[in-house]
């Protein structure tokens, strides 16, 4: 029933991109956001119309889907993080695998390759090794909190409310990262309020306490980075000394004074207040040093599964030359190096390349070489002549995928195999289509790195056509 852009007693049909759901109406497909699941019987209110596309929100749920389960997090209704927490895990896995199939068929025009069953995560809670929290003097209150009559502090330490850059809700307990993450965050929040230290105001770019990063490692190491929005020496010393004395589990304690208009700190000086300048992650018999600015896969257990698939697909015998593109801190390069003749890693960020070289040295790996810069220029004819054409290319680009010039560069290198690791199967399928004239996709393996979200990692093996 349709009335004033409202749909009553309609059934949600399926999942769509970015974790949304869809309702197929007589007027076309309507995209639905929020706490909704396929099979729900709901009322909808259309909030946006673009030609043949409509977006809606749920105003009432008449009957809940059999796919549902009870969310365990008390912040589920306000947090944009674990959007699929209300979907039973086995159904999450089904829809993620189907998303891979849909992208490959619709975008990549790849229809003959069986997609393996997704590799499930052993942990659906406390699986992340890094979280970032924001201080704010404009705390977001839920309707229940506002209606309670209770007086709440305006200070918050937590996550952004979805689609609100200026509003932060206070996180009491997050199920994403193991302790001591929750303990450290809540302790620092209490300390900041108790000592009346100013919290950051994003609109005016002022306030002392600005940002908190907690990194936990599978070795037990813990890194904490506090960002301050002002050079308030007395407050900085007070906060850092409190963390040092109270939380002795912190093995690397650091801070940054960031006076910019954004929280990114790759261009900022990190000051090591106490402990070591890095933490250690292990994978098989390898140890990786992770610094404050280092990238490391945020689900350590599933990263091992992902890299194991990539290594298996590479089919190394010890005689191959491997190029690892977008190598970052060289995790994949070092992971496969002992089964290859040599590995060449290429990465745009120089600091990451330095980490990659350091990790090779730490693990006694001598057959790796790392180069920084834009790979479309680095992998030229002179480079290929000097280092030899690759037998295997492993590529793990960011969500945007590979630029067309990078794809062209790979095609000119003519590897026998390409192992494409992706965190965005839509751009992965697009790139595979660009290589389809010369390469055939023969294997596809999805890996669930981020339970309770719509995100899925995927590995595809391409073999050069004769």
UniProtKB/TrEMBL annotation:
GO terms for biological process: rRNA base methylation. Gene3D superfamilies: 2.40.50.1070, Nucleic acid-binding proteins, Vaccinia Virus protein VP39. Residues 1-60 form the TRAM domain. Keywords: Methyltransferase, S-adenosyl-L-methionine, Transferase. PROSITE patterns: SAM_MT_RNA_M5U (PS51687), TRAM (PS50926), TRMA_1 (PS01230). The active site is at residue 423. InterPro entries: MeTrfase_TrmA_AS (IPR030390), NA-bd_OB-fold (IPR012340), SAM-dependent_MTases_sf (IPR029063), TRAM_dom (IPR002792), U5_MeTrfase_fam (IPR010280). Belongs to the class I-like SAM-binding methyltransferase superfamily. RNA M5U methyltransferase family. This is 23S rRNA (Uracil(1939)-C(5))-methyltransferase RlmD. It comes from Dyadobacter flavalbus. The gene is rlmD.
């Amino acid at each position: 029933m349709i009335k004033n852009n409202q749909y009553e007693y309609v059934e949600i049909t399926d999942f769509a991109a970015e974790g949304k759901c869809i309702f197929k109406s007589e007027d076309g497909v309507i995209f639905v956001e929020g706490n909704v699941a396929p099979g729900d019987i709901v009322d909808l209110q259309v909030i946006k119309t673009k030609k043949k596309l409509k977006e809606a929100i749920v105003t009432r749920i008449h009957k809940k889907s059999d796919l549902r389960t009870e969310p365990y997090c008390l912040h589920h209704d306000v947090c944009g993080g674990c959007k699929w927490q209300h979907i039973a895990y086995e159904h999450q896995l089904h829809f993620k695998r189907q998303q891979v199939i849909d992208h490959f068929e619709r975008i990549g025009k790849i229809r003959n390759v069986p997609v393996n069953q997704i590799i499930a995560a052993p942990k659906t809670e406390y699986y992340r090794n890094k979280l970032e929290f924001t201080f704010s003097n404009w705390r977001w209150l839920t309707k229940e909190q506002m209606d309670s009559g209770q007086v709440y502090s305006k200070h918050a330490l937590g996550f952004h409310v979805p689609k609100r850059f200026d509003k932060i809700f206070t996180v009491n307990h997050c199920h994403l990262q193991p302790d001591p993450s929750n303990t450290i965050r809540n302790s620092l929040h209490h300390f900041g309020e108790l000592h009346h230290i100013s919290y950051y105001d994003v609109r005016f770019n002022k306030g002392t306490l600005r940002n908190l990063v907690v990194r936990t490692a599978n070795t037990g190491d813990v890194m904490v980075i506090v960002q301050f929005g002002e050079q308030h020496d007395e407050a900085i010393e007070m906060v850092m000394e409190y963390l040092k004395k109270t939380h002795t589990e912190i093995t690397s304690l650091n801070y940054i004074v960031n006076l910019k208009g954004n929280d990114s700190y790759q261009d900022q000086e990190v000051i090591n207040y106490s402990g070591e300048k890095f933490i250690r992650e292990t994978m098989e018999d390898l140890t990786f040093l992770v610094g404050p600015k280092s990238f490391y896969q945020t689900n350590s257990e599933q990263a091992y599964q992902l890299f194991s698939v990539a290594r298996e697909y590479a089919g190394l015998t010890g005689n191959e030359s491997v190029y690892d593109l977008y190598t970052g801190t060289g995790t994949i390069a070092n992971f496969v190096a002992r089964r290859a003749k040599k590995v060449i890693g290429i990465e745009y960020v120089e600091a990451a390349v330095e980490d990659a070289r350091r990790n090779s040295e730490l693990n006694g790996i001598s057959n790796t070489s790392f180069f920084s810069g834009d790979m479309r220029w680095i992998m030229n004819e002179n480079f290929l002549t000097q280092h030899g054409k690759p037998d295997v290319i492993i590529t793990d680009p960011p969500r945007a995928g590979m630029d067309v010039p990078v794809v062209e560069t790979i095609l000119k290198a003519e590897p026998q195999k390409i192992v494409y690791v992706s965190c965005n199967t839509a751009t992965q399928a697009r790139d595979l289509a660009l290589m389809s004239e010369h390469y055939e996709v023969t294997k596809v393996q999805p890996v669930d790195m981020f339970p309770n979200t719509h995100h899925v990692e995927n590995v595809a093996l391409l073999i050069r056509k004769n």
